[in-house]
Here is the input.
Amino acid sequence: MSNKVAVYRKEHFNAAHRLHNPEWTEQVNDQVFGKCNNPNYHGHNYELIVKVVGEPDPRTGYVMDMKLLSDLIKEYILDRFDHKNLNLDTAEFRLLNPTAENIAVVIYRILREQIDTRLDLQVRLYETERNFVEYPV
Amino acid sequence: MVHLTRLAHFNAAHKLYNPNWSKEKNEEVFGVCANENWHGHNFDLYVTVKGEVDADTGFLMDVKKLKALIKEHVTDKVDHKNLNLDVEFLRGKLCSTENLAMGIWSQLAPHLPPNVQLHCIKLYETARIYVEYFGD
Here is the structure.
């Protein structure tokens, strides 16, 4: 039997964005993205759940120090995205459409570099209470 | 007297910014909320009306009618919008949650049936921050 345990840290950030493909006409953008294409942006309270899976360290009983996980999320994710316009203020989404899917993948890649490779990582991102995505699956 | 509440949602961008102040002063007062390029929220709106129950229907007000009024006069105007730029009823106002709640009150109050009064606009900007406006 596996001794793996999943630990989760929940965080949130508020950001503006718009969904837009610059290679398409306004009309096609409007057709595909509807009101999410509003040129003046709209916004969300994003809720982020970071899942870390591994065997508890016998010395500490921890899969991962949650204070460290919290500090990593704050430094690498929240400070970068909170109260920002994802399209205009972040390097990650200058050329990448800031859909919930893409935001989750970007967050995963950023955090993956900071967390021990012996631990599995998964990101769940709520754009609204009813719409959420997970990566990797 | 009965209170009846309908919950609605909308997502919008805004910034807290007083155009009469310098950028520095805005940042000092409003902090991250003054970000020039906007930020955004999922707003939860609770509209509470009050009055006497109609003997024939058992209703204070047909909630479908209330839903339609909220959609027509509020959510169609603010959902997926930039509150500072796109919303006529907030023109010239600071886009705080307080002012938004008061603006929503003004949008809805004139359209309720004669026997029904608006009691409260409760507006959540985040799960932890909300304002209530009772019209006084």
Q: What stands out?
A: The domain at 5-135 of chain A is CATH 3.30.479.10 (Tetrahydropterin Synthase; Chain A). The mean pLDDT of chain A is 97.
